[in-house]
UniProtKB/TrEMBL annotation:
Substrate binds at S7, H65, G141, F142, G143, G144, D175, G176, G177. The keyword Ligase does not apply. It catalyses: D-ribulose 5-phosphate = D-xylulose 5-phosphate. This is Ribulose-phosphate 3-epimerase. The keyword Manganese applies. GO terms for molecular function: D-ribulose-phosphate 3-epimerase activity; metal ion binding. It is an enzyme of class 5 (isomerase). Keywords: Carbohydrate metabolism, Cobalt, Isomerase, Manganese, Metal-binding, Zinc. Its EC number is 5.1.3.1. PANTHER family: RIBULOSE-5-PHOSPHATE-3-EPIMERASE. It comes from Paenibacillus baekrokdamisoli. NCBIfam families: PRK05581.1-4, rpe.
């Protein structure tokens, strides 16, 4: 059974807490929180203040995706704001091993995200330390983009790498262009955690939207 993590990037920011509670009631497993700095990606969203503002409205896991440069500078602030797990981009970290251990030593599961053009070899030397690998299935920065089909082979290869090392607890997460059609493809390829923004938040019936991704 897939873990479904609606991305609040596509939520109504004028009533963010209500939208989060709505998808919780609709069966969401995690809340995916897309943090963007306007430098690492060509979009600017929000920081720890927004995370802490909505923290008390739900018990769901806050899955924080840092699409920012120098994420190590903000790990403590997002943890204080209520993050339950933090994912950083391999492309944004000069010292990726150090950043991953900064997150883990603070007691949180740590993930690494790979942009579509970044090979899996970027994480082969720290794969045993990771709780999650996020395979970006669009170029990061915006919701509502088209799924990149080459991602499927990358997911399959990652699944093979994890199985070869006996890493059965490490999540494969996918993010971008996930809908009822692509959800079936990524699940078959080996994905465990499906992030979906537009496919959930643009729908009136969020429960049906989430169910269609499982
Ligand atoms: C893109 C974000 C994704 C995005 C997914 O940079 O990381 O989480 O919000 O949006 P959809 O599901 O609409 O493609
Ligand atoms: Zn994301």
């Amino acid at each position: 059974m897939s873990i479904i993590a609606p991305s609040i990037l596509s939520a109504d920011f004028a009533s963010l807490a209500e939208d989060i509670k709505d998808v919780e009631h609709a069966g969401a497993d995690w809340i995916h929180i897309d943090v963007m700095d306007g430098h690492f990606v060509p979009n600017l969203t929000f920081g720890p203040l927004v995370v802490s503002a909505v923290r008390s409205y739900t018990k769901l896991t806050f899955d924080v995706h840092l699409m920012i440069q120098r994420p190590e500078e903000y790990i403590a602030a997002f943890i204080a704001a209520g993050a339950d797990r933090i994912t950083v981009h391999a492309e944004a970290c000069i010292h990726l091993h150090r950043v991953i251990h900064l997150i883990k030593e603070a007691g949180l599961p740590a993930g690494v995200a790979l942009n579509p053009a970044t090979p899996l070899s970027a994480i082969e030397n720290i794969l045993d330390d990771l709780d999650l690998v996020l395979i970006m299935t669009v170029n990061p920065g915006f919701g509502g983009q088209q799924f990149i089909p080459q991602s499927l082979e990358k997911i399959r290869q990652l699944k093979g790498m994890l199985e070869a090392r006996g890493l059965h607890q490490t999540y494969i997460q996918v993010d971008g262009g996930i809908n009822s059609h692509t959800a079936a493809l990524v699940r078959e390829a080996g994905a465990h955690v499906l992030v979906a923004g537009n496919a959930v938040f643009t729908q009136q019936d969020r429960a049906a939207a989430i169910a269609s991704l499982r």
